[in-house]
């Protein structure tokens, strides 16, 4: 069996791949893994998972267990995947907090990366600076920005993952962008940001 090339979306092939995976065909599950695991791992890495590859595997084990009952299109499947990943990440953070585990951030060994950003504020800085800026945001704003930028989810998909309304996600994104713009270009005024339609 030839697996679809990993390009972020399966498109017309999605229904056939999903149906195969739901009936237990190994090639279908493998195709879903090949297609979506890089984005899940990137999201988990960007949000500070201790072992993003291991956690990605756990996410897919959970997803594959629940796959027979899944109904929806590719966009809904992506939302479902990132919802599971987000919950697993929250569980990891809670476990680490209970144990009192802390890890010192080291810019030289930080391998997290982000695709090209969709906002001017993010476009002006490199990956390392971008992640540092995102890490400086309050947790709710950071979650929204990482899901929008790293995971390339729509506002509606982010709302589903985080259990919030789309309007709340837009507000969090606006506040995050305003905060980032102030850090990057402190001479700009809030009215400049409103004028550019963001």
List keywords for this structure.
globular; Arc Repressor Mutant, subunit A; single chain; Rna Polymerase Sigma Factor, Chain: A; disordered N terminus; mainly alpha; 2 domains
Explain how this protein is built:
By secondary structure, this protein is mostly helical. It folds into 2 domains: 1-103, Rna Polymerase Sigma Factor, Chain: A; 106-198, Arc Repressor Mutant, subunit A, CATH 1.10.10.10. It is built from 10 helices and no strands. It has helices at 14-22, 26-46, 52-66, 74-99, 120-123, 127-135, 139-149, 155-162, 166-184, 190-195. It is globular. It starts with 13 loop residues before the first helix and ends with a helix.
Q: Helices and strands, in N-to-C order?
A: HHHHHHHHHH
Q: Give the strand tally.
A: 0
Q: What do we call the CATH topology of the largest domain?
A: Rna Polymerase Sigma Factor, Chain: A
Structural class: mainly alpha
**What is the second-level CATH architecture of the largest domain?**
Orthogonal Bundle
Radius of gyration: 18 Å
Number of spatially distinct domains: 2
Percent strand equals under 5%
Mean pLDDT: 80
Question: What is the gist of this entry?
Answer:
The chain has helices at residues 14-22, 26-46, 52-66, 74-99, 120-123, 127-135, 139-149, 155-162, 166-184, 190-195. By secondary structure, the chain is an all-alpha fold.
């Amino acid at each position: 069996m030839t697996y679809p090339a990993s390009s972020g979306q399966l498109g017309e092939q999605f229904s056939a791949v999903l149906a195969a995976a739901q009936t237990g065909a190994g090639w279908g599950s493998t195709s879903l893994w090949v297609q979506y695991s890089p984005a899940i791992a990137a999201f988990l890495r960007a949000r500070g998972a201790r072992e993003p590859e291991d956690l990605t595997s756990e996410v897919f084990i959970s997803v594959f267990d629940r796959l027979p009952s899944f109904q929806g299109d590719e966009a809904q499947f992506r939302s479902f995947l990132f919802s599971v990943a987000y919950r697993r990440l929250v569980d990891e953070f809670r476990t680490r907090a209970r144990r009192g585990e802390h890890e010192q951030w080291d810019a030289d060994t930080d391998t997290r990366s982000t695709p090209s950003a969709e906002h001017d504020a993010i476009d002006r800085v490199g990956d390392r600076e971008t992640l540092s800026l995102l890490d400086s945001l309050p947790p709710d704003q950071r979650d929204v920005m990482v899901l929008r930028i790293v995971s390339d989810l729509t506002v509606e998909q982010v709302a589903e993952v985080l259990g919030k309304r789309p309007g709340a996600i837009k507000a969090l994104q606006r506040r995050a962008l305003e905060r980032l713009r102030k850090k990057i270009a402190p001479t700009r005024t809030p009215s400049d940001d409103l004028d550019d339609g963001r």
